[in-house]
Amino acid sequence: MKVGIIMGSKSDLPVMQDAADALKELGVDYEITVVSAHRTPERMFEYAKTAADRGLKVIIAGAGGAAHLPGMVASITHLPVIGVPVKSSNSIDGWDSILSILQMPNGIPVATVALNAAKNAGLLAAQILGTSNEALAQRLKDYKESLKKKIEETAKELEAQAK
Questions:
Q1: Which terminus of the chain has fewer CB atoms gathered within 10 Å of its CB, N or C?
Q2: 72 closest CA partner among 126, 118, 35
Q3: pTM of the predicted model, to two decimals?
Q4: Which has the closest alpha carbon to 39: 62, 9, 73?
Q5: Cα gap 84→8, rounded to integer Å
């Protein structure tokens, strides 16, 4: 099971690294590279066309500005694509990226996470893979339980300070 992580430019890496980190923490193999829909359309086409043959099961695509990468990749592959809108230097508060990824035509779905939320994209990719991998599903359950425990510990600390 492998996840592909792609982004429109290297400037997206600080955001997209969170997806890689989440997958690594859960023991999910991934590949990561730059594939621009506008500057290297042939590279994008080849990446998406060969993704399944290379063993990918899910693709996470991050892009800023016009953010066509997730949708264009989804139009080429049958694999699930998770779009990460990235607030870039030329972005209109990130809304351009969000809307470019959200507003896909019927027949070309792209799951979309919040602005700069690549960690959630990594977790969602792992959840998709976990539907057919019990060990991964258990790691996800353990991860969510650890989130619950952190909140409960924080609540106890705050409540104790208030007394």
A1: C
A2: 35
A3: 0.94
A4: 9
A5: 11
Each residue's pLDDT expressed in tens, for the chain with a length of 163 residues: 799 999 999 999 999 999 999 999 999 999 999 999 999 999 999 999 999 999 999 999 999 988 999 999 999 999 999 999 999 887 778 899 999 999 999 999 999 999 999 999 999 999 999 999 999 999 999 999 999 999 999 999 999 998 7
* Residues near 87 by beta carbon (within 8 Å), at least 6 away in sequence: 64, 93, 94, 97, 115, 116
**Tokens 């693709």, residue located:** 59
Structure tokens at 157: 């600390």
Cα torsion 148, 150, 156, 159 to 10°: value is -100
What's the rounded Cα separation, in Å, for the pair 73 and 149?
Answer: 38
Backbone angles phi, psi at 116, to 5 degrees: 65, 15
Spell out the SS3 assignment of the chain: CEEEEEECCHHHHHHHHHHHHHHHHCCCEEEEEECCCCCCHHHHHHHHHHCCCCCEEEEEEEEECCCCHHHHHHHHCCCCEEEEEECCCCCCCCHHHHHHHHCCCCCCCCEECCCCCHHHHHHHHHHHHHCCCHHHHHHHHHHHHHHHHHHHHHHHHHHHHHC
